[in-house]
Every structure is written in C-alpha cells, then in structure tokens.
Amino acid sequence: MFHKIGLSVRNRFSLLIYALGYIGRLITASFLFLIHAKKASRKILVMQLLFTFVEALPICCILAIGIGTSILLLGNNFLLSIGQANLTYTLMALIIVREFGPILVAFVVTARSATAIATEISSNVVNHEIEAYIATGIDPISHLAAPRFLGVTLSTFFLSIYFSIFGLIFPVFVVQFITPVNIGDYFNNLFSSIEIKMVFISILKSLIFGMLISSSATFYGFNSGRASTEIPLAGLRAVSSVFILIILADAFITVLSYIL
Questions:
Q1: Among candidates 195, 166, 186, which has minimal Cα distance to 73?
Q2: C-alpha dihedral (256, 103, 32, 122), degrees to nearest 10
C-alpha cells in the first residue's frame, strides 16, 4: 500500500516537473513566434483570435451589461437605504473591473476555446499528424501551440477590457427605463472610484488566466492517448484543470494584492 502511495506521489511530481518544463518551452516558442513566424503559423494565430476574441465578444458584452445593471440597481437601492449611495460606484468598479471581469471572461474562454484546442490537438495526436510534423522538421509546439498560446492570452486580455467598458458604461443607460439616474453624476462618481491598482490587477489577472487556459489546453491535447476515445477526454481534463487553476490563481492574486 505504501509502495503504491509512493509511486503515485512520484508520478505526480514527475508530471508537475514535465508540465513546468512544457510551459517554459511554450513561452520560449511563443517569444520566438513573435520574431519570425511562418505564414501558416500566423494564420493559426489569426483564426484563434477570430474564434476566441471576435466570436466571444458579444457573449461577454451581454454578460457585462447584465451584471453591471444588476449591481447598479441592487447596490444603489440597498446602499441608498443606509445613506451610503456613493459606495455603489466603488462596488461596481471593484466587481466589474477587478473581480468579475477577468474571471468571468476566463470562464467563457475556457468553455469555448480550451475544449476546442485540446480536442483538436488530441485528434492530431490520434491521427498521427504530430508525428508527420516532426518527420518534416516542423516543431509542433512552435507551429500549433505557440500561436494558440498567444491568441488565447491576447483574447482574454482584450475581452476583459471590453467587459469592463460595457459593464461600467452601458448599465446607466439601461436603468434609465427603471430608475432614472443622472448620467453626468454617474460617470463623475464612477471614474473617481477607479484606481490604477485596480486596473493593474485586472490586466494581470487576464494575462495570467489566458496563459493558464492556453497552456493547459495544449498540454492535455499533446498528452492524450492514441485511442479515438481519448479526444473528448482531453477536452474534459483541460477544462476541469483550467477551472481549478483559475480559481487558485484568482485567490492568490487577490490575497497578494491586499497584503501588498
């Protein structure tokens, strides 16, 4: 029994070391991709940006407007009843920009792109296309993983920006049909509540979440089995691991920001 436990711990440790090495190799390949990328690889990057950023933009904007409107209505009514109506703008900026924006965008990107990337790469493994790339002198990480790493990371970053913009600006126009709010006072109070540190944390979270999503999706895609039944399993493993990593990273960054 103890021998099996020792083997399990050793295997997990080896997997962790392998994963860290893969991430380092992926980051290096992504940096080199920016310097001298081939036309076929650039096309993969463009298609990844189209799928992850452009096609997911309407979903994120609708989510942002809905959440921002709910916070404005509920927060304003409650805080007004206790004489702290000005805290509504701080609450909106904190939730939309710093907390909900990056993590909700990361969840949307994970649900759409992590599954697609993992299953696509795992299907390449099953169909022996990865071996064909290697046989012709093409590095699969540089050609397949690096553009997806950059595409998902940039998409998560830009989607977080749009989420914050739509979640802060448009709710005031929506609530005019329910409870009229002075638009000038709203924007003055809102912009004065947004801090540089808050924006910096939002950017940091979006970039780290994008890196976690893309690296995990490509990692599980490359490490799938040879059977066709492994293709959907690669997507499931990628999504489940990404959700855990995002929650842990979000908690770590949030706690660290309060300490510092």
A1: 186
A2: 130
CA dist 140 → 37, 97, 212, 215, 222 (Å)? 13, 36, 19, 14, 9
Q: Give the integer Cα–Cα distance in Å for 186 and 211.
A: 35
pTM, entire model: 0.89
- In whole angstroms, how large is the CA radius of gyration of the chain? 22
Give CA–CA dist 49/31, Å, rounded: 17
Please choose, from the candidates 58, 88, 245, 247, the residue with its C-alpha nearest in 3D space to the C-alpha of residue 163: 58
pLDDT in tens, 175-212: 888 877 788 888 888 888 888 888 999 999 999 999 99
pLDDT tens column, 35-47: 887 787 889 899 9
Give the alpha-carbon dihedral of 39, 44, 50, 51, to 10 degrees.
170
